[in-house]
């Protein structure tokens, strides 16, 4: 799992999507004791980089969220939507139609 997350470690949102996508398929992600022992081990079998530690914390956080019934990745993110010209026209016509319908 750490090998996979290294590829996406520059983007925490993307890392969250990766963790969420493979959550059900990888039992190691649900093994809190293993993750915590890897984080606390002073003489690890394999040398962990700072980024590996960060990714382990991300996995542990995701595991805790799942345990209490929260979603790892929200249904929508707060990124600004960008529309091309035809999409802007369609959105504005829907908005003006709904405003006009409310006033009648």
Automatic annotation (TrEMBL):
Domain Cohesin subunit SCC3/SA HEAT-repeats, chain residue ranges per copy: 17-89
* Gene Ontology BP terms: sister chromatid cohesion
Which Pfam families does the protein's record reference?
A: HEAT_SCC3-SA
Q: Name one GO molecular function term.
A: chromatin binding
Q: Name one GO cellular component term.
A: nucleus
Protein name (database record): Cohesin subunit SCC3/SA HEAT-repeats domain-containing protein
């Amino acid at each position: 799992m750490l090998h996979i997350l290294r590829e996406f470690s520059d983007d925490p949102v993307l890392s969250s999507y990766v963790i969420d996508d493979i959550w059900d398929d990888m039992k190691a992600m649900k093994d809190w004791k293993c993750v915590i022992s890897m984080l606390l081990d002073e003489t690890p079998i394999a040398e962990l980089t700072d980024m590996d530690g960060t990714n382990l914390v991300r996995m542990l956080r995701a595991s805790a969220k799942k345990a209490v019934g929260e979603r790892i990745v929200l249904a929508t993110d707060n990124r600004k939507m960008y529309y091309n010209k035809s999409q802007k026209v369609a959105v504005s016509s829907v908005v003006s139609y709904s405003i006009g319908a409310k006033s009648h």
